[in-house]
What we know:
The protein folds into seven domains: 139 residues, Trna Endonuclease, Chain: A, domain 1, CATH 3.40.1350.10; 69 residues, no CATH class; 188 residues, P-loop containing nucleotide triphosphate hydrolases (Rossmann fold); 65 residues; 70 residues, Orthogonal Bundle (Arc Repressor Mutant, subunit A); 148 residues, no CATH class; 86 residues, Arc Repressor Mutant, subunit A (Orthogonal Bundle), CATH 1.10.10. Helices cover 45% and strands 15% of the residues. The longest helix is centred in the first third of the chain and has 22 residues. The termini are far apart. 41% of the residues are buried.
Amino acid sequence: MSPKPRLVVAAPGDGPNAQAQARGKLFERLVSTYLTLMGYKELDLRVKYAGMEIDVEGTHGVTGHRLYAECKCYSDPVDSPMLQAFYGKYMLRWQKDSRCEGLFVALRGLNGSALGLYRDEIVPAPSGTVALKTGEDVTDALEQSGEVSFPPEMSPIIGSVGESELLYTDKGIFFIRYVIPSGSGVASAFALYDSKGNVTDDEPTASFVRTAHPTLRDFSILDAVSTGESVPAAPVKPPLVVEVIKSSAPFEYQFPASPEFFVGRRDARAAVSAFADAVLMGKTNNRSLLLHANSGWGKSSFILAIAQDLTEKGHCVVALDTRTADSAQYAMAVVRYVLDKFGRQMSDAGGTNAITGFVGAADRLVSLGERLGAQNRLLVVFLDQFEGVFNYPELLRHLRDMVLRLQESGAKVILGFSWKTDMVGSTHDFPYQMRDDIETASRQFHLDAFSQVETDGMLTQLEKELGRQLRRDLRFLLSEFSQGYPWLLKKLCAHVLTQCQGGETQANMANRLNVKQLFDEDLAGLAPKELEALRRVAGSGPLSAGDLEQEGLSADLLESLIHRRLLVRVGTKYHVYWDIFRDYLVTGALPVSENYLLRVSAGCAMAALKSLAEHGGTMDVSAFQKATHRKGGSYFNLVRDLRLMGLAELSGQDVVLKVPYAAEGPDRQRLRDHLQDRMRRNRMARRVVDKLGSVAGVSLQAIALLLKESCPYVTAIDKTWLLYAKCLAGWLDAADLAIWDRLQKLLRNYDSTKGLRDRALWVASRRMDVSTPRVQYSAILRVADRLAQARLTGGGINLRDISRSTVSKSLWTMEDMGFIDRVPTGLIFTKLGLVFIDDKSRRDDLFRTTALKNPIYSQFVDLLGKHGATGVSNSTLAAELKQVLRCEWRDGTARTAVKIMMNWARLLGQIPAGYRKLAKPLAKRPDSHGMMPLFPETPHDGRDGQSD
């Protein structure tokens, strides 16, 4: 007799949330129907969590006893905390009414701990009565009431009968019977019946059922004719299951490394092996493991190495490439593959290998695990490249259920998952909940970037292949360019191996090595059709041969790309050989950030560029070494950094300038733009700049720590890391991406939209703490105009025709006014300063308002008002100002200050009427924004408003 069908509440909807809401309303109707069939009335339903939970109170129609019930419509069994919480709430009601009945309805039943709690604690309890009901009980009630009638048995000629489901929908109740077609071992078809057990196959009904229950989309439907005894169901081709392909050589970077070529990860391998031992000995409840790592960090290679480790211990292990997964049936196909591969080893010859459905697939794994456990062995199934499964929510749902079933059973089975951390983040997009369920149930392991020890191990392996040692500079560059990416290091090593076998010298490779060249070499020599096919696969994801042939791309063309190792075939799909290369094809940009440490200061590099520029852009090596006073390792570091930054290169025996050098002017701007571009590509430089966006400044110690964390493949003492940090700070300053304060040893943020950098800018140190006005207003306006021009053009500040003294005093005054903050070789504009510089129509008002906040000028304006009717001489004002301020100015200093402040007051319209007759007439001039001044300026000595 066929097992009872599993009850499924199914509903269509525009998106997961809408579908959940619709299922909730259906579950509410089902609960009401079921409780009514059980004899309860006056039902009060309180719905929670989109209908997945319903609290019910009611009264039994015969006994009059009160009912308190909780009903759960979750996709997995209910755990003990939920049952315990319900029981506590029920007992509070029972203490008030001892005739109160408790009812707990869980469509998917209880897990092991909850079932134990119910049997051991709730059933034997002397007080209260709590009944447990599952989906089977609800189904029985519907059948006994006549709501549904189950169909007759199916003829074995059609195929083997699999599992069945009872679909409760808003268009009625339907019976689903899964079928294993003759000649197939996996359920891949289904028969559809109405609530009275009659076959139905009309297209609208079938379409609705598939929409409401998406798992059925991956199954063919049997029509009414084929359910007869004469026409069998046609077998459906099951999803393809393939194992992870191994490399055949140490540096065959197109495939994961075979265990015999695997390097490093000793601690991680030991940790996974210890977890497997814990499962075998029953010391952990976890029955799944999850491997996290970014793209290119060697997950697939690690899985193959672990599979080898566990196989050598006698366990049954298989590593599968899930990129062939494209339907929910893949979950059953995996189990069938495992049965075919290991069934004989598991002493399972007596059973059938047919997979009757998703529940049956999980049960078969549990059964296999029990047999292996008796032999003190494990079954371990790794599902690699799992991020693609997130595109198939129904498949993910069944694999999640399989994980929970294994965990509940305690079987000696481990399901292993690996996905890319940088592709599957902490987003809350569907199907994040099922993904998180797998994460929660799994023992998690993380792979980090390669350490220096692991990097050295692979480089030693390269030396064995070459038959000789690597040059120190080439070894250093391979380590640094790889950035701790095992895959990138393997690709770099493959490049060096190929070049050396072709007769290239290590010295030339050290001078020309760069990451972009590696990807360009992959594409070199491709015909346009081949390049088109490659980019088509990269842009659209895995494609079948049929998909590509529809685009006019022949099988021979695909085979040529496979022969060149640019495409790999996984099952029936074609993939670009690696994610990083795929990204390069799609974007045209380097898929990984540059990640190198600069050893030479920016000042030394600029001096070297200056020498090259003075010699016409080219110098032979000996002359360059003499000019820069560098030999040996220091010369190597200088040339290396110049080449990494794209500033110069070695060409034969010459050092050649690549970027025009100038201390100022347009070429200086081009040099700055070039430096900014190169530094933004550097991952470590970018991390430092990003950090500056959230803090006022970063110390050398903080930069050193960041560099150390970013370069696990480099070993250095703390003092050396500080030198690297200081060097990077100088380069960021040279690129105008930050400001390096040498006195404070602090790297500060620099925003080009709010400041100006000019290495020719000279500002004298202040000799007074008191903010005494020391330059005429017209000079300040003149300097402000030059700053506005520099902001507009993005070039240097043109102050050549203004004396240094006037520039310094003007900037001091603007700083006192709160318009600017001075920084080394530049200045930063405040919000008020940006308005003062850019909006000439508001300058006078802003200056007038802020000037009155200066205590000296404020006292001066008060004195002007005191003598406003008649006015007094500058000497009198100077004497009175000294007395009011109680300062020890010399008489000449006081008169000069008064003279300047009088200039401010006249141009700002703050002179009382009594002083106008004392002013000496001057030829009027337009002010800075084209308006005639209200009062003529006081005469000056022709030194741009400079005062003594």
